[in-house]
Amino acid sequence: MNTETRVNVAPSSTEGHFVKGAKQVVNLDKINETFLIEGASVLETKNHTDLELKESCLITCQVVYNPFAKMYTKSKD
Questions:
Q1: Distance in angstroms (rounded) separating the CA atoms of residues 51 and 65
Q2: pLDDT per 10-residue tile (average), the chain, 77 residues
Q3: Predicted TM-score of the model (pTM)
Q4: Kindly report the CA angle at 8 between 50 and 15, in degrees rounded to 5?
Q5: Closest by alpha carbon to 4, among 29, 22, 27, 17?
């Protein structure tokens, strides 16, 4: 039985971005989707390359500037 936890750190993503193997994943900001990842882990996605996280880190959604709306918005998949 696999008891390893996967946590989606990009809930607004159409594909999801999952942290696997972390000691703890803390959601710091639900609106901006900012997460504290405690311990070494792997960030797995379907539409990007998997990324090995060797130590604790902070993950947040990419924000891009939309010159037509003249404002910053979350990046989309």
A1: 25
A2: 77 89 96 95 91 96 91 82
A3: 0.82
A4: 65
A5: 22
